[in-house]
Structure formats: structure tokens, C-alpha cells
Amino acid sequence: MAEGDKEERFVFSVFKGVELKMKSSIPRKKSPILPQDKESWITKNPFEEFKTLAVSAPDLPLDRIVQSTEAIMDRIRWGYEKLLEEEAKELVWMVQYNTIIKAYEVAEKYVKEIDYTAEDIEEFCFALENTQRIPYLIPGPAGIYISALCNYAKEEEIVLKLSELKTEINLIGFRLPRGKQLMVDGDTGDFTGIGLEGGELAIEGNAKNWTGAGMRGGKILIKKNIGLHTGEWMMGGEIYVGGRVRGLGNIVEGKIYERDKLVYPGKGRYPNLYY
Amino acid sequence: MEEKNLDSIIEELWPRLKKKHLYPEIPLPKVKRTRAPKEGEAEEDEGVGLEMKQKQMTINGAFVSQMKDKMEERRVVEALLDHGITHYTFCPWDFHTHLRLYSEAKKVVGDKELAKRVSNHFIDIIADTHCVKKRLTEIPELHRNLKKGTIEEVIASLYQKIWGIDLGIQPSKISVKGHADIVRRLARIPYLDRSRWGESIQKFARSLKGGTQSSRGARFEPLFQRRDRSGIERLCQTDHGPVRIQRCRRGLF
After folding, report:
1. What pTM was computed for the model?
2. Of A119, A204, A221, which has the smallest distance from its Cβ to B184's Cβ?
3. Residue A104 covered by a domain
């Protein structure tokens, strides 16, 4: 028996059943819209015309790309949530040497397991602001986690276009290793590039206080202005500032330039003075 | 004579196209009468394939005849109409969505004109991708034969990547110009997910913005130099390819 016949019979029997039921409850009325040839009315498929319509819905490479991107983002978010779970025990997250080191070690543990690209890091930064996706944005751990993502990324050059981000991320560029270049398009928060380990960090915007604190080597380039305590306990490397340096920290070793002019070591600027 | 021929092509194609797109309530497309350009006068609107006003689509005869050598007229018309109809049936769907996308783009690029261009390109990509995924269409063939400016090359390269169809853009050409990075970023956007169009257009604009520097070291040097124009502006200002269906939505709704 053809499949079409089966369908027709099924539809017919369903309608028959409905008709029987109605018979018992409501007195039968003659419907003026019912055609005389009732059987043909029941079996007619109103979408018959679309039978010949060829609809192709192939899986485009776009579907696969989007799917894998989503999967990676889920893993990155999961790692961040795990980090928060561990760090939330402290109740108040204080930026101290030990807390940063501990948080970074936890972040490293989760980040190492993920296969991601620089674009995923940027997407994660924007996802942090989307409360529907990530319920908690705690600037300290978030910055540590992003730094770990940058440090363990496969790419040597990482560009993060964050100029539309409303939040300024703290601690970005933490421990950036030699051979890595990280460029941030936008402003960054406090503790930018602290503990830099030979990498090159460029900020196309402003940076806040404690930039380059404890850095051991490498370069930090800030296009605009920089805050107080710049280069506190800096052990080496160079900081270039395109705008103004508001205040220097206690610098052990290294160089700081303000608009191409060497301000440390030099006679013109003194640590912990505001300009 | 030529317009008459186009009219008959449209009349012949229209019932099938309407059926293919599940009977949208759109009137029969018209053909724009072209007058012969006077001596020394550039042929205006040569690059506009399709215009839309209210619900009326108008095919530009000059565009079709220009494409005649590369592609059969019937196929050009079908591709243009597939593209146009999808603007009504999928993206932007209505004026409100169009404005919403424009305003999201403007938040990123900051400039009205650029935001308009960005949102137009974004909407075109969605419409074309939807059409390629859901319908049998000549759109890829049309893109293969279009003359391309800088932005069209980037978008064609994106299409190659997300559709998996060869459009004649060699990967080396894109990487030499430093657009590979932009294409990689653009390819991650979920174009067909309507619920995410707002964030997607921001990502789209961000990817185009400021992003043609790619060589190692070059990124760090320009930091202290004043850049006159952002990347998207550079991309769009060199965008003078004479043949573009992207302009077709002028006067939409």
C-alpha cells in the first residue's frame, strides 16, 4: 500500500471519530461550507503545492564554526566560575602578593585544559559584562583569569579590542612572558602589566595606578595617561607613556619614558609625588 | 528592447521565486529604465543591482546588462531577487530591526555614515547566508562574478569561509593585504541567530574597526603616531567597487 493512502485513511478515520463524538452531544447541523463531495474535502492536503518545493538546508561551515566557538566559550566560562568558587571563600578579594599568586595558579590549572584562540579571550571579556551569561564580574580574579588566558594562548600576538567595554579590566598582562605581544585597544584598570616577565604589552588608551609594579623585564607602552605608583618595585624593563605619568612608585631598576623623555632614572621626577 | 526582455524574465521567474520564498506579499518587481549616458557623463547607478522602496523591488537594467558577459541574465535576476526578497522575509524584516541594528553599530563606530555602511553590510551578509542555507540560489555565482572593492573582497572571503563555496578569492590575496585576521573574526559571528543580532553587529563593527594592521611589530610602532582614520574607515573609503548589490537596500521600506 502506498504511504499516501495510509495517510489519507488516517486523516479520514480521525475526522470520522470527531464526527461520531459530536453526534452524541450536539444536534447535527448542515454546514453550508461543507462541499458535497465530503471525502475529497477531508483528504485534500492544503500544502500539496509545496510537495515539489526543493528546500536545501545544508550544514554550512558557519554552523560548525559557531558551534565550536560556543563550546569553547562554555569551557572558558566554566573555568572562570571554578576560579570564583575557590576565590569566593575569601569573601573579600584583596590584591595582595599571595592572593594574586594563588588565584593565578588556579586560573592556570583550568586554562591549560582549554584549546582557545585570541578571539575567544576577547569574546570572554565582553561576556563578563553580560550578566545573563556570567553572573559575577569580580575585577581581580577576572583580570587574573584573562591574563592566564593570554599567557597560555597559542598565538604570540594577541589583540584585544576592548574599547567598547564599560569595565576597565585590572591586572591585565600579569606575568606576560617573553615572546608574547599583547595589545589592548581601550583603557585598562589598576595593576596593568604587573610582574611582566619579558613580554610586550601595549595599551591604546589610559592605564590606572600601579602599572608595571614588580615587572622584571619587557616593555609596556601606554598611548595615553597613566596613574600613580607607576613601576612600584619594578626590577627591570621599560615603560613608555604617550601622555602624562601622574606619579612614579619606588622603582628598583628599569626605565620610564614620558612622551619620549626619560623620566626615570632622572632628576626631574621623584617617586610618590603627584604631577 | 532590453528592458522588455528583463520584464519577461521577471514575469517568468516570479511565480517560482514566490513559491521558493513561501509566498511573500511582495508585488511583481519592476525594471529600471536606463537612459543612454551623455558623452563624458558617468553612468549613474551602474553599480546598483536592485532598489527597494516600500515593498517594490526595482531591478537595474544597466547592472544586469553589465553582468551579461559573465553570467546569464536570468541567473543574475534570480540572484538579485532572492537577495531582495530575503530582506523582507528574514533580515532586517522590518524597519524597526533595521534601525536597531544601525543604532548598535553606531555605538561602536561612532559615525553615522559608517554605521549605516556597517549595518548594511551586516544585513546583506545575513540575508545572503540565510538564502544560501535555506534555498537553492544563484547568489554565490553572483558574488563570484561581481567586481570587488576592498570591503567586498573581505566579505567574499568571509563567504568562502562560512559557506564553504569557492568564490575565486585566493587566500594568499587576503593574507597579503592583512585581512585574514578580520575574516577570521567575522567568521565567528552567529549571523543566522536572530536573538543575537544586537551583540553580533557590535562584534561585526568591532572586527572591521581598526583592524588592518597585522604584521609583527607594526602593531607597536603606530601607537605613538596619530592615526588619521580607523581601519573601518580605510576599508570603507576604498570601497568604490563599481558593482555592488550591497547598495540595493537604498530606500528600503
Report:
1. 0.78
2. A119
3. yes
